[in-house]
Amino acid sequence: MTDQVADRFTTDDHFDHFNTYVERTVRAMRASTARDDERRQRPANGEATDLTGRSHAVLSGPWLLPGHDGRLVVYAHVDQAVLRWTESRPGGPDWLGPDVLPAKNVTRLTVAQGRNRYAHLLGRRVRGGDGPLTVDLVYAIQYQAGRPMSEWSSVGNPLSGPGRSASTGLPAAAVTTSGTLYVVAPTAHGHLALRREDAQGRWEPWLDLKVAAALDTPAAVATSTGHVELLAPARGGALTWFQRQPGAALERGHDLGVVPLPGSVTGLETSPGRVTYYLTDVQGGQVVAVRPGEWPVPVGGSPGDGRHAALAATIDGYTCTVLAHRDTEGRVVVGLCPAEDERYGVWWTDTGIACLGDPVLALDAFGRVVVLAVAADGTLTLARQDDGSGLTLGEWIRI
Known about the structure:
Oligomer: single chain
Largest sheet: 7 strands, antiparallel
Shape: globular
Distance between the termini: 37 Å
């Protein structure tokens, strides 16, 4: 548990007091979402609409990131483009967009952000006609909220040749405190390859991470202390990598005693230099919190097959972790617990909002929690933490 919370809760009685506080907050959240029942979404068609009135199926995302000026920015990947919405002013509630950012032949996308608030869009680009497909990894950067994005540039591919390059999957990305971009891509036969920038911003050669058991794109986390960590699902557990010093080579850590569902893992820095991973346990089917060197902690929930969202937030002076996922019924579920004390329980609430894909979380310019998801009709919908005590979500609105 963090020092801030530990100073205030040092006995079981004190934790009982915190439990009562969170339970009261969850009841308020449920009451708030019940008032939104009449506004629940129409049957799904999986499409979003851009400024031209064209409809697009959302291929990946969305992502919700804070811009350099405090405005939140939303990205959604559609066919041949990335749609971008930007808050009209910090804290909303109005939005500008969507802006249509070309992404020709980019079939899959991920977005990462550094502490300088630059957004790095990293994708898998496929080219080729009737012959073998050629795949390379490409990236673009948005430096300022609402401004044009850079041109797409190639990161290359750790596997050369048209036939072999198609075996490279969707990469993960992390941006260090110094602004260095790390790219980790799954390749054939369970291998992972790493490429990163050097101190001058030039790409170093691809590096084989010497593993042959990875089942999915890893979760990559850059910490406030300058380190990068990785966790990759494997058949018998979870594979980890760490750095002894910022900028050092990634080393294999101890395997973790839990088998993650591929595509479910999210890493969050829950205290300086310390990462907690949240994932769906294949064996138990529930959410698990795990930190390197510690036993996994089951925390309940009813997750579907998607990725978990995790956010560090201060709620009424308490350092907390906020979680969100799409449950087995297709609805957004939000959880709350003291930071790094998941063993005392995560309090879950079903928002009642149906969604497509995975919900995401962010803090707005005023430190309020924002939950964003693709609604059942394919539009983007979000709820923002109400003013006042507790984590009570306001009305869900469409952007």
